[in-house]
Sequence to fold (147 residues):
Amino acid sequence: MAAEDVAKLREQSGAGIMDCKNALEEAGGDFDKALEIIKEKGLAKAEKKGDREAGAGYLESYIHQGRVGVLLHVNAETDFVTKNEDFREMAKNIAMHISAMMPSSVEELMEQDYVKDPSMTVEQYVKSVIGKIGENINVVKFACYAV
Fold:
């Protein structure tokens, strides 16, 4: 197992160095299998954090070609995380997803295939960010306007 593989896995997954090293060892050096192991563990971390209070609010807005507007309310556990680049990118991506798919509720949104990666749902995308950041995140509500 090369240090380059650990670095590449860390870059792609956002997981810690030791988590990447352990996943590569568990996968017998198979990079793709190690990436899956990291994702599974990340989702498991997200499930454990699901009961924690997410009370720090963040609003994201997105306007698509002056014809569709979205205002999204997302919560994290701390204000610190709401300033995190990964968190803000996730909020922007979800707002863009809403403008494209026009879900009618948060529940419907979370069940939809994620536009940027149809191999996962929006809920799985959020959980992957929870695993990376280490705090619970909740999509609270959104408003969408189209002309």
About this structure: The helical segments are 3-13, 17-26, 31-49, 79-82, 85-101, 106-111, 122-133. The mean pLDDT is 86. The chain has two domains: 3-49, 56-146. Residues 56-146 form a domain with the Tetrahydropterin Synthase; Chain A fold (CATH 3.30.479.20).
